[in-house]
Amino acid sequence: MSKGKRVGVLALQGDFREHKQMLEKVGAEAVEVRLPAHLEGVGGLIVPGGESTTIGKLAREYGLDEAVAERYQRGELAIWGTCAGAIWIAREILDYQQPHLGIMDIAVRRNAFGRQVDSFEADLEITGLDFPFHAIFIRAPEIVRVGEGVEVRSSYKGRIVFAAAAGLWATSFHPELTGDTRLHSEFVGELAK
Amino acid sequence: MEKGTLRVKTGFAEMFKGGVIMDVTDAEQAKIAEEAGAVAVMALERVPADIRAQGGVARMSDPKKIKEIMAAVSIPVMAKARIGHFAEAMILEALGVDFIDESEVLTPADEEHHIDKWAFKVPFVNGARDLGEALRRIAEGAAMIRTKGEAGTGNVVEAVRHARAVMKAIRRIQSLRDDELMAEAKNLQAPFELVRYVHEHGRLPVVNFAAGGVATPADAALMMHLGLDGVFVGSGIFKSGDPARRAKAIVRAVTHYNDPEILAEVSEDLGEPMVGINIDVLPEEERMAKRGW
Questions:
Q1: What is the pLDDT of residue A1?
Q2: Is the dihedral of CA B26, B28, B29, B34 positive or negative?
């Protein structure tokens, strides 16, 4: 189902190598995206974990953020942001001013679960998955509000950690750091359906 | 829910990849670093170049300074403890710093033992000159490795030496037969299980950064090409003529290290680099890389 599909991974900074490995495991062709030209022929884009302020600043250069937004608005690109990536695509970031794409109607709070000493692992129930997903949260953001048409696919202790809308996913945790490929497989499978 | 697990520690280090971690001594410098796109800042009392110039015992920073830096920026804050000084590390963990660098840049507190890093929830980064040293630190619980380089010199030659030594040893281990791994573990003075991991995966089990002597965007790009995951910059930024501009240029150089045109663009007109020291004229006892084992 996902054979041969080209999926980009925003490779400005962060754990893009882990996402590439997961994409390759599910049979997709993974492409590193650093400049607008690298989006050529790419149907999906994963924005990795990393430092959201760094990714936001680097994406402003060379028109990369505009190119991503334009491709998304034309319906040519599905986007999945994990952790820092979720912050980057969120419309609203509480408490901080930082460059971001802002195309998904959610609000996020950075480092909502605390600093690194509070980073944790936990099992999550996710809508659409038949058994729990072991999730890794690292200085994770919380999704504090979702707009109309945005589905909450998972919460942890009443706090939203996975939101999904048409062509957009935001997860607070890092599926790429586990061996569990279910979400990568689903993301790739949904492309150009 | 589990906190402070190995996966949470090493996973956090993965988030720094392709990024630049900058030494800062106060809140104002930390803000400049964040604004330039640093993925984290390293809070310390004096940058290595000043430790070198002023001499004396170099210790963990004043907790007040660290707290000010933590309050000033939203990015992760690291801080340094002396080699073997687990009480300093306990204090840093209590302050809530995000990462501890058990660093040879400070005056070692223990000439024989490093900190038992498994005993902490906060992750640690350690310096290494070769693969055996890197694997010993990982066995003690380090979640991230960096080259030692020669801090405070503005001279990248030692970092290159250490990076090449580690990478060459990794390639060598990959080429060995399974029945040759134990002898290799013995030679490296490293745990067998970690040697076997390197044999199977062709890399360290943790993130590996460059540190010690990086002063220009080209230095940073060189280290990325040698296979490192990111860069620490110490004295190189705030001992240069235009720190904000240089910091931003080094951040862009690490992301676009494989694009010579962008490297040329970011290297232009950065003002005075830090002066630098030739390492071959540096007396043996002043070499920080020799600290620890």
A1: 46
A2: positive
